[in-house]
Amino acid sequence: MDSFVFQNATKIIFGRDSEAKVGAETALHAKKVLLHSGMGSAKRSGLLDRVIASLRAAGVEFVELAGVQPNPRLSKVHDGIRICREQKIDFILAVGGGSVIDSAKAIAAGVPYEGDVWDFYCGKAHPKSALKVACVLTIPAAGSESSGSTVITKEEGQLKHGLTCDDYLRPVFSIMNPALTATLSVKDTAIGAADIMSHVMERYFTNSTAVDYSDRLCEATMRSVAYNLPRVLAAPQDYDARAELMWTGTNAHSDLIGMGRGGDWASHEIEHELSALYDIAHGTGLAIVFPAWMKHVYRHDIQRFARWANRVWDVEADFGNPEAVALEGIRRFEAFYTRNGLPVRLSEAGIGADRLDEIAARLSQNGQRSVGNFVKLDQAAIRAILELAR
Amino acid sequence: MDSFVFQNATKIIFGRDSEAKVGAETALHAKKVLLHSGMGSAKRSGLLDRVIASLRAAGVEFVELAGVQPNPRLSKVHDGIRICREQKIDFILAVGGGSVIDSAKAIAAGVPYEGDVWDFYCGKAHPKSALKVACVLTIPAAGSESSGSTVITKEEGQLKHGLTCDDYLRPVFSIMNPALTATLSVKDTAIGAADIMSHVMERYFTNSTAVDYSDRLCEATMRSVAYNLPRVLAAPQDYDARAELMWTGTNAHSDLIGMGRGGDWASHEIEHELSALYDIAHGTGLAIVFPAWMKHVYRHDIQRFARWANRVWDVEADFGNPEAVALEGIRRFEAFYTRNGLPVRLSEAGIGADRLDEIAARLSQNGQRSVGNFVKLDQAAIRAILELAR
Predict the structure, then answer these.
(1) Residue B256 to residue A251, Cβ atoms within 8 A
(2) Helices B379-388 & B356-363, crossing angle to 10 degrees?
(3) What is the span of the domain harbouring residue A48?
(4) Could you tell me the pTM of the whole model?
(5) Do B62 and B201 belong to one domain?
(6) Chain A residue with the nearest C-alpha to that of B208
(7) Are the beta carbons of A7 and B6 separated by less than 8 Å?
(8) Which tens digits make up the pLDDT trace of A282-329?
(9) Alpha helix positions (H), A111-238
(10) Domain assignment of residue A1, yes or no
(11) Residue B367 neighbours by CB under 8 Å, 6+ apart
């Protein structure tokens, strides 16, 4: 097991009607907040009005900034930073899914920083402080509700980059009411589940050795997603299945299940290029990239893929032919996505092959860098994976 | 899934030589600390000297209070409270196992309290503040390193009671070096593993419904203990297996795997009576009580016991006879303890039957209260379980 430091202080307030607590909980931290939200669904559902009523009842002032798009944009982050500075706000309450929370984190990191917040995303600097962030979560997917991570898209150059800063960017609290997710479409629910699965798989496929317990925690999480996603899609109002999916989403990315092991993250990097160029949902891109990535890399550690096939996808443990076990696992995994309505090929998402060379070149900086840790992928390997994903 | 609030901010610093960080980490919180330790093993091993060197290097003053016994005593807690008040200390660093950490928490809660700290343990009051506590852990067992719980024995009346206060008593940091546990005897290692298992089982056997994911997290934890304990006993110097056992111990009691579900805790209450009267190790008592408890209660939810038997103990899923599956699981669990050198009967721990009536009477307060949640046990039920444990 690798040595590690783990700390995650996010307070999770989980259950029916939990959003009613948002005012009182916020008042513990701030008298005035930036109320950050997305494209209007929280308004239409009545959630935003309930949040506002709760804030008012607790005597918390707020300034609204709505309009965060999926694949949240840097320009909106700049708006938020300006408002917080002008209005002397030091707490950001995100109401929405991962995009809104990621945007809130970017604003939080940007306000006390003298340079452009994009510096943090392109690796020029790292946050030394940040405003506090909290959220009312509406989509189980990104895990941003208890992670220190944020991903932002810079419109100019279609650049999509991530930042992880566990010291300052984990939300101070996250309110999670599974009933709020019942209005998510079948499609968006499945896309979110693919995101959750991917956060576990990025951690599961590791070169770290002696990771028995964290393997099992990852396997438990993947099995629970595999068990509960079909239940949710069959009965979108099923609170219990929604609750399971929502709670797996948090744990998939809270870091606990990945302690003591390195992760891979190549599929995330490849996906970021896809969603930067084509503006597809992150989970959609991951559903396409991951099976292709697996087909390219599984020979690197057949034992690990066979274990995964056996423990997560119930492939019989044929020790005489572990490669067949591994491949059957990948087949079942891909079939699981297909069965639940997710695309597993670029063509199914309407993406042609014309820019695949460009993507491999952009990501590898024309062969100057590799991506991933389980297997280090050079430009040719990235291109080969994109070919498998066509 | 039940609604819940979860927050655990303990910083875990895990890995080889991690105790070298104790000075710098402590200096973030305090300039002067109470250095609390046990019966001398940390001194003999050289750990305490390394901790002291690290504190000195970081400019942290300390006052030593050693001598915490297994089943930590109230009198020692009173000593600690007095020292902290006299010396204006507001941070307690525990170096040892669960007993030392539990004693440290008791001191931490007692210092700012006007009454007797025992008030918290007998339910007369609840802490409204506490000093900060941190630890260097030497025994994987109690999970006290990231829990808000503490158990203290009051010598007068041989009373052993617990207190849980997640708001103030979770350690601010816990340093965990698996190599430090390599000197634990085979016997003490197994006793610790029984404690770990018990923390999971107290959560696993629940009346809460729709708990798929937390079931799986509990199952993963129990399987990992079952897999790694024999590895450690076969090769006590195996760092990797020691690391797995140590990390399961923390997660078994950090609360995360039990979120969204009620727990039982009757076996803990029964065990506390045993160790109060006979001064046996907590894990020893739990190894004896749990199989008996199961035999008494399994009919309450045969499905749950059958799931446990199948998923943790690999009993084949015979849906035609779930009771047989459940019973085979209990048999394998008990055999697992026996195989690893743990007693599973009172007689094996040298405890006779002469005070069993008294124990059932004490615990039920002569029939005035029940214990447990999965099944509420009255005086007769407690007596019946003790009979099964003879």
Answers:
(1) yes
(2) 140
(3) 11-179
(4) 0.98
(5) no
(6) A240
(7) no
(8) 999 999 999 999 999 999 999 999 999 999 999 999 999 999 999 999
(9) 118-121, 166-169, 186-204, 212-234
(10) no
(11) B361, B378, B379
